[in-house]
Each structure stands twice: as C-alpha cells, then as structure tokens.
UniProtKB/TrEMBL annotation:
Gene Ontology cellular component terms for the protein in this record: bicellular tight junction; lateral plasma membrane
PROSITE patterns per UniProt: CNMP_BINDING_3
Keywords assigned by UniProt, alphabetized: Cell adhesion, Cell junction, Cell membrane, Developmental protein, Glycoprotein, Membrane, Tight junction, Transmembrane, Transmembrane helix
InterPro entries documented for this protein: cNMP-bd_dom, cNMP-bd_dom_sf, POPDC1-3, POPDC1-3_dom, RmlC-like_jellyroll
Membrane-topology annotation of the record: Multi-pass membrane protein
Protein name stated in the entry: Popeye-like protein
Compartments where located: Cell junction, Tight junction; Lateral cell membrane; Membrane
GO biological process, any: cell adhesion
Gene Ontology molecular function terms on file: cAMP binding
Similarity annotation: Belongs to the popeye family.
Length: 234
C-alpha cells in the first residue's frame, strides 16, 4: 500500500467515525474534515489527473455540512440561559432542551401580583397556563380553602390538558410571581413545533402526579387524626 492508499483509508475511517457520533455537531465537524481530506487526496495525491467529479461532490457535501453547522452554532449561542430562566429550566423544565425552552419563553411573560389577586375562577376556562415562581395561591371551593399551590407548581394545567373549565378558584395568598403562558400563543407554538408536545406533557404530568401524591398524603394524615381525637377521653 502506498501513501495514497493510507490517506484514503484514513479519510474513510473519519467518515465511519462521524456516523457513530451521537452529537450532531461533532458528526458534521468530522465529516467536513473528511471531505477536505478527500479533495486534497483527489487533487494532489492520487496518481494521474485530478478526479473533478469526486472533488465537486465533496464541495457540495462541504457546503451542506457547513451550512448546517452554522445553524447549530447559532442555535447553541441562542440557547444559553442565565439568571431566572436558567433556574426555571433546571428546576421545572428539565424535559426541554435549552433551545426548546427558549422557544417556550418566547411566548411567555413574567408577572408579579399582590396578595388576594384572583388567578383562576371556578367554572371559567383559564386563558393561560401559569407557573408559580415565587409565592403561593390558595385553592378555594365554595369560598373555603381546600389546598394551596406554591413555588414551581402549575395553575390551570388540568384545564389546559382537558380543555375544561376550572373546578376551583385560585387566589394569591401573598405577593406572587408567575410565568404566564397564554393558550393561544402556546397552541400556535405547539402546532408549529410539535416536538415540544411530549416534553410539555411530561412536565405537566409530573406536576399533576406530585399534587395527587400530596393530596393522598394529606387525606391519610387527616384520617389518622380523627380516630385518635375520638379516642381521647373528655
């Protein structure tokens, strides 16, 4: 085997290596390097006349991969999260990639509300999906507090998932900061980017599961107190 054969084998090895890369960024970087090496081989190293067709095809591959690589770098730069957004992503929206979460934030808005501000009304369909970032909202049924929703918990998630009116009223019990996701903009985003549906449903499903777990725990705790109270001598 001559120098040409060794270089060709190395070039093919790079292409094979690119196919096993799980990170699309490095797949394209290695492919670009392999294509440049092929052009060098076909023009300078291979005996005889340069192989213009192979060189032209590699130039096409270089253009395609360079374009896609530029898009990846742009998205990577745009996906850098900081401050409050970074904390929310880490604590609540882990199912989303940073790029996906940035798209979600583009249709959301941050709001601060005083105590006794009504966020959701019974028998009315909420127009927004809300996440409490700091503070608390009391859940009222027939004017009585039956539960509370606190930090990093959603409001209106069941109405969003089922498209049904709210079964209770939610009123802030202290100054509260929320992340509001209007249904209209959120639905438009999900239609445009359907791959966001799965992580969003995963996040909301986890929130509902935690609330049900807390509800069952509180119910068992209440049931355990009643017999003890009944057995206490007067």
């Amino acid at each position: 085997m001559g120098f040409y054969d060794y270089l060709s084998a190395f070039s093919y090895s790079l292409i094979a290596l690119s196919y096993i890369m799980r990170d699309i960024f490095w797949l394209r970087v290695i492919t670009l390097f392999a294509c440049f090496m092929d052009i060098y081989i076909y023009f300078f190293i291979r005996p005889g006349q340069p192989m213009w067709i192979q060189i032209a095809m590699n130039l096409v591959f270089i253009a395609i991969n360079a374009y896609q690589l530029a898009i990846l770098l742009k998205e990577k730069k745009a996906s850098v999260l900081s401050g409050e957004a970074k904390i929310i992503h880490q604590q609540v929206f882990q199912a989303f990639s940073p790029v996906e979460f940035k798209k979600l934030l583009d249709v959301a808005r941050f709001e601060d509300h005083p105590k006794d501000h009504c966020l959701v009304r019974t028998n009315e369909k909420p127009c927004d999906l809300m996440l409490i970032l700091q503070g608390e909202a009391a859940i009222l049924a027939n004017g009585n507090k039956v539960s509370a929703v606190g930090n990093k918990q959603f409001l209106g998630e069941m109405s969003f998932l089922t498209e049904q009116p709210a079964s209770a009223t939610a009123v802030t019990s202290q100054p509260t900061r929320i992340l509001r996701l209007p249904h209209a903009q959120l639905d438009a985003l999900l239609k445009k980017t359907p791959e966001l549906k799965a992580p969003l449903h995963s996040v909301l499903g986890q929130d509902v599961a935690l609330k049900l777990k807390k509800m069952n725990h509180d119910k068992h705790a209440t049931d355990a107190v009643v017999p003890v109270a009944a057995a206490t001598p007067a």
